[in-house]
Structure prediction request, 298 residues.
Amino acid sequence: MTVANATPRVDSPPTDRVVAVLEFIATEAEPVSVAAMASRLELSRSTVTSIVAALSRAGWVSRQADRRYRLGPGLLRLAGAVQSQLTPSQAFSHVLAELADRVGCAVSLALVDQTEMTMVGIAAGPGQVPAGVDTGVRLPMTAPLGVSVMAYRNQQSQQDWIDTAPAAHRPVLQALLHQVRRGGVAVFGADGVALEILEVMGEVVGLLAEHPRSGALRQRLVQFLSRLSARPYTAEELASDADLSISYLSAPVFDHDGNAVYELQIGCLRSQVSRAERDEYLRQIRSAAAALTELTGD
Prediction:
């Protein structure tokens, strides 16, 4: 299934440069010089100098005696806020790790709002986390992404989400929302060719991670990968005795007020899954989602 883009992104080159500089400093084990940043990011030295000066005033970077820069203590306040507001507790991580071990696949947890979903927890278990999927990765909320959460949102939110898809796919998405409300889980498949493409493109995303200015392209590729693996199965198909390819399953996690806020995913990426295996995946993801929901009330 392909999806249309959501609201077109309005780029801000000056802001993008600031983000690129900060991300580059963050990924380097040692302090870095203005010259190194300018060379690697393909920016002028004067531009980098202006950016690090502003970041220094905010305390987000710190200038060393040898005129190299590293992250500054001013980021600790922001990091603490992110930690408290967005990052699941250690108990969440334990549930994810146990689920990954039981199903033999990578699992992930994403925080879902109206415009995007952000990966906040990942556990590989015996499986392999696809390249490009990492904590902090953000994806636009374009259907069918986030369906297990959107199924519990209000009608207007659901319609806005459905409208991000081509008109021909919208009846399928409407039915999928109802199916998730009934069964609590969405299951997606991809044919053998798509699974091969997923593997190759995942490697490309991994290689792009080595280039500090490839963030926007990596984001687009990860979004493309998510579309390749997003052919939803109907309840009738899942109940059949035929083997099915499964890319991933998703289920909602609710907060203490009963709002669906997280999406739990099991990333199978398997070309043939028997009915018995599917039933076990469904049982496991429902159980883990219930455990995570209980933790949000603690």
Q: What stands out?
A: The first helix runs from residue 13 to 27. Residues 1-10 have pLDDT under 50 and may be disordered. The chain has two domains: 13-80, 86-296.
